Amino acid sequence: MSALTAAAPQPDAGVVYLQTVRFIFSRWTLLRLAVDQGWGDRDCAADANEVVEHVVSLVAPQCHKPPYEEDLEDYLHIALEEKFNTNAEDGSVEEIVKRIIELRNECARGDLAGCAAILAQAPSDLSACLDRGEPEDLEGDDAAGVVPAAQAPPAPRVPPPAPVVDDDGFETVVRRR
After folding, report:
1. CA angle 30, 31, 35 (to 5 degrees)
2. Is residue 93 part of a domain?
3. pLDDT digit string (tens) for 110-144?
């Protein structure tokens, strides 16, 4: 007699991926500040949801071919400027786009470890991002070489990902900014 064992159901890679993309956008400091501080002309939360859902529709696993990174970057830059009257000059747009494309490729191979690691992260705190005045307005030992908390050094850059080759054998060309 063979014993039937109930295997745990495997999560759908597409669903996990889309949850991860939404989670990444929910933690994007620039977008959260734009919504929380009301940088847009209308309902900022609705505008942010519209931007996120548009990106999700472009990168969804049902799309046979992932969008080009530069197309997503251009869309996000334009959306930030038009909807929130701001520019992302910190490289965060490029970082987010690169990460969601990498995750899409991982999920297409059935590897959900990257998504699981992101979804396991704790919510971020925006208190360090609030306006605390210009550095020269801060009290303290700036002259002694002590860097205020609001001016901590930037995180190191992530190395570029491996080239993305589609089913036809064409490699995605990444435009440098």
Report:
1. 115
2. yes
3. 888 999 999 998 666 555 555 544 444 444 444 44
Paired tokens of 170: 């064409």
Residue 171 phi/psi, 5-degree rounding, is -95, 135
* Cα separation, 175 vs 177, whole angstroms: 7
DSSP summary character for residue 36: H
The residue count for the chain = 177
| Residue 152 within a domain | no
Q: Which domain holds residue 46?
A: 13-121
Q: Round to whole Å and give the CA distance between 55 and 67.
A: 10
Q: What is the pLDDT of residue 97?
A: 95
The reported pLDDT for the residue numbered 71 is 93
In this prediction, the residues of the chain whose per-residue pLDDT falls under 70 are 1-10, 122-161, 174-177
Domain count for the chain, please give it: 1
Determine, yes or no, domain membership for 26: yes
Q: What is residue 2's predicted lDDT score, i.e. its pLDDT? A: 47
Q: Which residue has the tokens 């669903």?
A: 15
Q: How many CB atoms lie within 10 A of CB 80?
A: 22
For residue 33, is it within any domain? yes
